[in-house]
Design a protein that fits this description.
α5 (69-94) runs parallel beside α8 (128-144), α9 (151-165) packs parallel to α11 (190-214) and α12 packs across α15. The chain is built from 18 helices and two strands. The chain has helices at 2-12, 25-32, 38-41, 52-65, 69-94, 99-113, 119-122, 128-144, 151-165, 174-184, 190-214, 226-246, 253-274, 279-302, 317-340, 352-395, 401-407, 412-424, and strands spanning 346-347, 350-351. The relative contact order is 0.12. The mean pLDDT is 89. 71% of the residues lie in helices and 1% in strands.
């Protein structure tokens, strides 16, 4: 599946940087003038995110490659492969001892992490921020769910959380997620646990304070009543989660998300109450699901000025994938435990194994539909991107206003300045 993802990326990657991607140019201009400083990398992007980690990679990458987006896209795929390797090895060691169960777990991990319905992120070098965030998230969860949790795991986990936050604001969801893992991890001594929790609280408050002062000044303001805000957050969050599975069938997004949450609770009860499964093997799947839930809530709170359908943006799928991957992994674990059980397990007068298997099968089929729809649509967007690139090359310096707006929709004067910058430096964007 990694090969399919890489082939798709190489075929359809966005040759022309556009919209938010071009906000890297002010940093490049400062570099050319010898005025680029460390604090420039930590400036908030549109009062929404830090992209510091991505900037540290993209600025030298664009200098060395002449703004060739291909190499950023290759790095996106490489980070996904690293995430898959880290998570698969951890699951093999911690949760899935049987050969059949491990094969299913590995296949499902690849199916979600390499899914082409995240093509909107994959095909853009700018979105390396997303994949650095995802890799840091996987690494942090793996570190905090190991058999032994000592300071050699704790401090790298702190670093992973910082990397996640300073690449994309969804990294904030790691703060409560990893904090809960510290609380429930069975291994640390009481003293070590208390010290780790106190250090984590101090780190989380410092990070949240910096994020609030640098990013959220005035963001997300709305005149909605408290009740309306709560209803909006609930609906938006359900749509956000469901977009990873049934974005193409929007009428089913909320019901399927609700079914997923119910099914997750039922599986937790089955594994922990019926089969007395220790918490440690469950920590990684549970953490992935918790992370996706918190991300959906954070995003909803930051999008109060939008319609709830904004939650269906395909670029969010990279994050909501974690919920469904965690759910599937718990399903495989439950099937394995039921198979080993001496007595049959019955849910609602039906064999629980059949219910779980059918639910997972429906989920995989719906996800496949999502992949086909989004990958096809994004491939079309890529072809439009190439056509726009050729029009800008052929018409330069007299680009049509419509093309300038498609190139950079945040002001025609800035769009023309950015176009001139890319042309003057003979970047790859201006090479036929």
């Amino acid at each position: 599946m990694a090969g399919i993802l890489l082939a798709y990326a190489l075929l359809f990657y966005f040759r022309l940087s556009f919209a938010d991607d071009l906000d890297l140019i002010p940093l490049m201009e400062k570099y050319d003038a010898g005025a680029l400083s460390l604090k420039d990398f930590f400036l908030a992007h549109r009062e929404s995110h830090f992209h510091a980690g991505a900037y540290f990679l993209l600025v030298p990458l664009m200098i060395l490659t002449g703004w060739n987006n291909l190499w950023g896209v290759v790095l996106n795929a490489f980070l996904l492969i690293l995430s898959h390797q880290a998570l698969s090895r951890h699951l093999r060691r911690m949760a899935f001892s049987g050969d059949d169960a491990m094969k299913w777990a590995a296949a499902l991990t690849a199916f979600f992490l390499f899914s082409l319905d995240q093509a909107g992120n994959l095909l853009s070098s700018w979105q390396i921020a997303v994949f650095m965030n995802l890799f840091a998230t996987v690494a942090g969860i793996v570190l905090f769910s190991r058999e032994e949790l000592h300071y050699g795991h704790f401090f790298p986990g702190v670093f992973c959380a910082a990397v996640a936050v300073y690449n994309f604001s969804t990294g904030l969801a790691l703060l409560p997620t990893l904090g809960l893992m510290l609380v429930f991890h069975p291994e640390p001594t009481r003293r070590r646990r208390v010290v780790m929790i106190l250090l984590w609280l101090a780190f989380s408050m410092a990070l949240a304070f910096h994020f609030k002062t640098a990013v959220l000044a005035g963001a997300g303001h709305t005149d909605m009543s408290t009740g309306s805000k709560m209803a909006f957050v609930l609906i938006y969050s359900l749509k956000y989660l469901g977009s990873s599975i049934s974005r193409y069938a929007s009428d089913w997004v909320i019901p399927f998300s609700a079914a997923g949450l119910f099914f997750a609770a039922a599986q937790v009860r089955l594994l922990m109450v019926r089969f007395k499964t220790p918490i440690l093997p469950l920590m990684a799947p549970l953490a992935m699901m918790a992370y996706a839930l918190v991300v959906s809530l954070i995003t909803a709170l930051g999008r109060l000025a939008f319609d709830t359908d904004q939650a269906l943006v395909s670029r969010y799928i990279s994050f909501s994938n974690f919920f469904w991957l965690g759910l599937c992994l718990m399903g495989v674990m439950a099937l394995s435990r039921i198979k080993e059980a001496k007595r049959p397990v019955v849910w609602m007068k039906t064999d629980a194994r059949k219910i779980i298997f059918r639910f997972l099968l429906i989920l995989i089929l719906m996800k496949t539909g999502n992949i086909v729809q989004v990958a096809h649509k994004t491939a079309g967007t890529s072809l439009q991107n190439q056509a726009l690139r050729h029009r800008l090359i052929d018409s330069y310096p007299h680009a049509a206003p419509k093309d300038l707006k498609s190139f950079y929709p945040f002001g025609p004067e800035t769009a023309r300045r950015y176009l001139d910058y890319l042309h003057e430096r003979k970047t790859h964007l201006f090479r036929k």
